[in-house]
Structures are given as C-alpha cells and as structure tokens.
Amino acid sequence: MNIFNEQEQERIREAVAAAERSTSGEIRICVERTCKGPAMERAISYFNKLGMAKTKLRNGVLIYLSTEDHHFAIIGDMGIDKVVPPNFWDSTKEAMLTHFRKDELVAGLEKGIHLAGEQLKKYFPNLSDDVDELSNEIAYGEEN
Ligand code: CA
Ligand code: CA
Predict the structure, then answer these.
(1) How far is it, in rounded angstroms, from Cα 82 to Cα 110?
(2) d(Cα 43, Cα 31) in Å, to the nearest integer?
(3) 31 and 138 in contact (C-beta within 8 Å)?
(4) How many angstroms does the Cα of residue 67 sit away from the middle of ligand 1?
(5) What number is the average pLDDT over the span 83-106?
(6) Cα(34) to centroid(ligand 2), Å
(7) Across all residues in the chain, what is the average pLDDT?
(8) d(CA 14, ligand 2 centre) in Å
(9) Is the dihedral of CA 19, 25, 30, 36 positive or negative?
(10) Which percentage of the chain shows pLDDT scores above 70?
(11) Is the pTM for the entire model greater than 0.90?
C-alpha cells in the first residue's frame, strides 16, 4: 500500500505544480516510512538517485520525509546554495514542523512546498520558456 492515497498524492502534485509556476526552480518530494541514519544523508542520497543535480540552473530542491518516524530534511542544489543565506530553509522547516507535530503530513508538505516556492522565486524567477525538468510526482524511497 502506498504511503499516501490518490487524493493525497494529487494534493502534493498540485502543490508542486503551483509552486513551480512562479519559479524556474524544481521541487521534488521524496517519502519513505522510516529513515535509516541521518535525514540529511538520506536526502542527499535520494537527491542524487533522482538525478536532481541535472537541472540547467542547478536549482532543484528536495524535501525528504519519513512518514512514521517523522524525520525530514530540505536540500537545495549548488545553484541555490551559492546565492541564499545559510538559514534559508530554517523558517520553512519550522512551519512544516508545526504540521508534522500534529501528524498532518500532507499539510506539512504542502506548506513546505509553498514556502520553498516563495523563496525560490526570489532567486530564480520563472522563465517564459520554462520546462518541467523534474517530475512533480512523489518519489518513494526504499523503506516502504
Ligand atoms: Ca521548471
Ligand atoms: Ca517539476
């Protein structure tokens, strides 16, 4: 059984599509049930496995979440890392945490996607010839 049902997947897919309308950045969600090892390491590993370093402007963002033990991490590619302040993602993570603490996983992800999109558009405004470089579908990790 999938972690998220069809309706929940649709909400997440739509949140990603909406965020990407105002930025050339690409946001991807990766979930699995449990996180083996530090969330940041898992996130980096999936970032690479999903080919997220292949965007033209190197502006892919991955939000990783383990749904049962509630670990999560947000990472941005080097194009983003170069231009943003070091605490760039902290407020986004805080906002997501308030939902995760109430077990509102989809709402937390939607919030994170929305805020990441807001921040991305400051540095990477949408281009008229924008291409959807990374799928808006949820990626499922190995621990499912
Ligand atoms: Ca795009
Ligand atoms: Ca996309």
Answers:
(1) 25
(2) 10
(3) yes
(4) 27
(5) 91
(6) 25
(7) 94
(8) 10
(9) negative
(10) 99
(11) yes
CA-nearest of 101, 133, 95, 128 to 114 is: 95
Residue 30 lies in a domain: yes
Element (H, E) at 13: helix 6-20
pLDDT at 1 over 80: no
- Output the domain CATH number for residue 97: 3.10.310.50
Predicted pLDDT of residue 97: 95
Return the minimum-mean-pLDDT range out of 31-35, 126-130, 131-135.
126-130
Q: How far apart are CA 63 and CA 57, in angstroms?
A: 18
Q: For residue 40, what are the domain limits?
A: 6-140
Tell whether 22 is covered by a domain. Answer: yes
Does a structural domain hold residue 1? no
Query: What is the distance in A from the centroid of ligand 2 to the CA of 135?
Result: 5
Left (φ > 0), alpha (ψ -120 to 50) or beta: where does 32 sit?
A: beta
